[in-house]
Amino acid sequence: MENSWTKRREPFQFMLYLGLISSALLFLFIILVFVKKELVNQDIPLKIPKVFWFSTLAILLSSLTIWQAQKSMELQKFKEYRQYIISTYFLALAFLLFQFWGWMDLLNNNVLPSNNTGGSFIFILSGLHVIHTLGGLVALGMVLYNSLKNRSFIDSFVESVNPPNQLRLRLISIYWHFVDVVWIVIFLFLLWHAS
Q: Based on the structure, what is the number of domains in the chain?
């Protein structure tokens, strides 16, 4: 019987999990600073841009499409895999565009980090999340490039059975679901506070 504690682990997956835990702690720390400031100041006004609803929908859909891409790769449905990877990539771009649009809405309403504590937390939380999203977008871009480069069935099959390629897609999928969950937590926290 194999001992789960002494079983060899995938080092890249372990490093990814360490990075995700570190990032989660960073976001948690920022949220706790916000809560502490609110307890001291009693009220920190927040106005969430309405376009953040669309960015939330885009990132939720992108999490679904990357999951579908992973399933399609496992089932060797390579055309569907490419379509889902393309969809994920463009939904990620849409998420970023909606975020920038939301920032422009805040700036146009004179909600600046310098004059609005609530606005500064929105900029910090969403800005930090955008940085994480950009990292995922770069990784998605590499997977997208490989999927478009290997269009024939044979090339796609070789890519799909190659363990490093399988690992890459699995790690990107884990990371992308993490980015999704973090945004949902941020968005719900901001919604809860704004109401």
A: 1
What's this model's pTM, rounded to 2 decimal places? 0.84
Q: Is 83 a member of any domain?
A: yes
Which of 41-45, 69-73, 158-162 is modeled with the greatest confidence? 69-73
Annotate the chain with three-state secondary structure: CCCCCCCCCCHHHHHHHHHHHHHHHHHHHHHHHHHHHHHHHCCCCCCCCCHHHHHHHHHHHHHHHHHHHHHHHHCCCHHHHHHHHHHHHHHHHHHHHHHHHHHHHHHHCCCCCCCCHHHHHHHHHHHHHHHHHHHHHHHHHHHHHHHHHCCCHHHHHHHHHCHHHHHHHHHHHHHHHHHHHHHHHHHHHHHHHHC
Alpha-carbon torsion 34, 39, 41, 47, what sign?
positive
User: Domain holding 109: CATH number?
Assistant: 1.20.120.80
Q: Choose among 124, 12, 139: nearest CA to 66.
A: 139
Q: What is the pLDDT of residue 174?
A: 92
pLDDT tens-place string over residues 130-175: 999 999 999 999 888 887 777 665 555 556 555 566 777 889 999 9
- In a 13 Å sphere around the CA of 99, the CA atoms on its Cβ side amount to 25
